[in-house]
Amino acid sequence: MRHRDKGFSLIELIIVIAIMAVLIGIAAPQFVKYVNRSRQAKDMANADRIATVIQTAFAADPDAYDVYTGFNTNSFKAQVTVNGVSEEYNLIPVMVNETGPGKDSRFTGGVSQFKDKGKQKGLYTVINEELGLKPGADNTFINPKYKVTREGTYKAPNRANPYTYGKVNCWRICKRADTGSLEVWAADGNGAWGGWPVYRVWPVPDDVYLTK
Fold first, then answer.
1. CA–CA separation, 171 vs 185, rounded Å?
2. d(C-alpha 155, C-alpha 164), whole Å
């Protein structure tokens, strides 16, 4: 006499589902960490690439640096923590790659200081060309992928009300007021000045960025 295979019982199915839920609960946080670290690595590579392009442009025309970065005198106090040690200094925003409706993620801002075949061009034009960012194209590959943000609010110069930090979605090139060196920051494109710096990625990433 043949016996019919009745498959799993209800209790057996519940046990299997419970085991799967436990395994997913263990694996999910590790997967999220892996994804975040992959995005961090991509952002750091892009920030380094942006910085290299800028440094190369200024190396070709050293006299343009002070003129280009000196057009904006607005500054704000930035705080960066590296290896647990915090530092505050004034930061001057220079240039941003604009995102959002009607924007194509190309860099804008600044003045024309670089010569190309007898014509003046802005640093943002040089950067866009070197990074392969084309007008009207999908250039979102250059935007930050790690959407971390800071807690709290900030006060922008010449603005009456404080802003709440938002998630980063663009890059802001800044100049340190004390040393004159350039830095690359991941920024909130919906914040003040069309791209408020949230955390530094280059030359040395902020702990806030690395430990999230």
1. 6
2. 9
d(CA 142, CA 184): 13
**pLDDT, position 117:** 46
- The identity of residue 42, as a single letter, is K
Residue 48 predicted with pLDDT over 90: yes
**Ranges of each domain in the chain:** 28-211
Count the helix, strand and coil residues of the chain and give each as a percent rounded to the nearest 5. Answer: 35, 25, 35
C-alpha to C-alpha distance for 15 and 35, rounded to whole angstroms: 30
**E strand or H helix that includes residue 128:** helix 123-131
Residue 190 has pLDDT above 90, yes or no: no
pLDDT in tens, 74-96: 778 888 989 989 999 988 888 88
Write out 145-191 in H/E/C secondary structure: CCCCCCCCEECCCCCCCCEECCCCCEEEEEEECCCCCEEEEEEECCC
Which SS3 state, helix, strand or coil, does residue 57 take?
helix
Structure-token pair, residue 191: 């914040």
**Tens of pLDDT, residues 125-145:** 888 888 999 988 889 999 999
Are 47 and 183 in contact, with CB atoms under 8 Å apart?
A: no
The distance between the two most distant Cα atoms of the chain, rounded to a whole number of Å, is 97
Paired with 122 in beta bridges are 112
